[in-house]
Amino acid sequence: MFVARSIAADHKDLIHDVSYDFHGRRMATCSSDQSVKVWDKSESGDWHCTASWKTHSGSVWRVTWAHPEFGQVLASCSFDRTAAVWEEIVGESNDKQRGLSHWIKRTTLVDSRTSVTDVKFAPKHMGLMLTTCSADGVVRIYEAPDVMNLSQWSLQHEISCKLSCSCISWNPSSSRAHPSMFAVGSDDSNVAYGGKVQIYEYNENTRKYGKVETLMTVTDAVHDIAFAPNLGRSFHVLAIATKDVRIFKLAPMRKESSSTGPSKFEVQIVAQFDHHNSQVWRVSWNITSTLLASSGDDGCVRLWKANYMDNWKCTGILRGDGSPLSASSGQPISTMVGSSLLSQNALNGMSAGR
Question: By its UniProt entry, which SUPFAM superfamilies does this protein fall under (predicted)?
Fold first, then answer.
């Protein structure tokens, strides 16, 4: 049984993103009201807003947490063409501040000439690295050479994807058998431009990221993309939020021992669901990659699970107002009004300003 609880978010405009920290005890939200809010979970399970501040001069599309190994660090990106890195400081400067935390801006990344549509930290085994993608079709990878000084970031890679970018996801695998890899989605609405998802991989010889795969069957605008945690698999699993939910399997083909070229993949679509009957805005995996959650314009969060035969089924539905719905129920569902964070239904207006 899945239980939803509603939170009065008090954002003054659409909420575009909700992000949990590594432990799931903290949450950040961002909105078109140009602010980010940080929420902490109490022992009783209630969420309390512990920080709220104006971050950008335009709609804030995404917010994301760094691994706690690097401290309490957030990154945000905005329509104002910038991304920003924020760090929580526990004040000790005077008695009034002692024990109180506040968030300070460590840096603003200003390389993009258009709206910055997504921002993600790389997996922690790569060090403290931050990736942005923009409507100008460029992915930028930054590194903080000194994790104790987050005001210094150097631009390591600039990768042109040729299509306006809407979302990005790193493959979390830390296996040496898998080079660093990320996927980029495009919300370009022109169906004639096939392949709205591109996969890039790091090449040790050229020291650059090169495109190794384009998912040509994805021709509709992509709103979100998420690699599943790897957990020792030899292949990768990628979830895509477009006009439906799709799950792809990317199996690396065997290389010749002398080959140093880019990986080749056998691409297979393992599941496709149009149960939302509408645009799907977010997909998110649990930590063991056994459960996928998706949210869409029908005002619902749907949960997907695979059985031992690798057949995916819907195992639960949550309406925006928090009332559960049996997975077999097919009746139309009214769209939520208000700010229940769980359904993330406020994400519906995300593309409006991009």
Answer: WD40 repeat-like
- Percent of the chain whose pLDDT exceeds 70: 85
> What pLDDT digit, counting tens, does each position of 201-247 carry?
999 899 999 999 999 999 999 999 999 998 888 899 999 999 999 99
Amino acid at 234: S
298: left (phi over 0), alpha (psi -120 to 50) or beta: alpha
Average pLDDT over residues 125-136: 95
Map out the domains of the chain with their CATH numbers: 11-160 (2.130.10.10)
Quote the pTM value: 0.87
Paired tokens of 155: 């631009």
Q: Measure the CA–CA gap between 16 and 176, rounded to whole angstroms.
A: 35
Query: Hey, which residues does 104 pair with through a beta bridge?
Result: 87
Half-sphere exposure of 332 (CA within 13 A, CB side): 3
C-alpha 310 chain-centroid distance: 24
C-alpha distance from residue 54 to each of 12, 14, 104, 154, 263 (Å): 12, 15, 11, 25, 43
Which residue, among 350, 259, 295, 279, has the nearest Cα to 14 in the 3D structure? 350
Taking the C-alpha atoms of residue 249 and residue 264, their distance in angstroms, rounded to an integer, is 13
Distance CA 62, CA 115 (A): 11
Predicted local distance difference test score (pLDDT) of residue 193:
78
DSSP codes joined into one string, 234-287:
SSEEEEEESSSEEEEEEEEPPPPTT--S---EEEEEEEEE-TT-S-EEEEEE-T
Strand order across the beta sheet in which 280-285 lies: 280-285, 291-296, 300-306, 312-319, 324-325
The H or E element containing residue 80 is: none
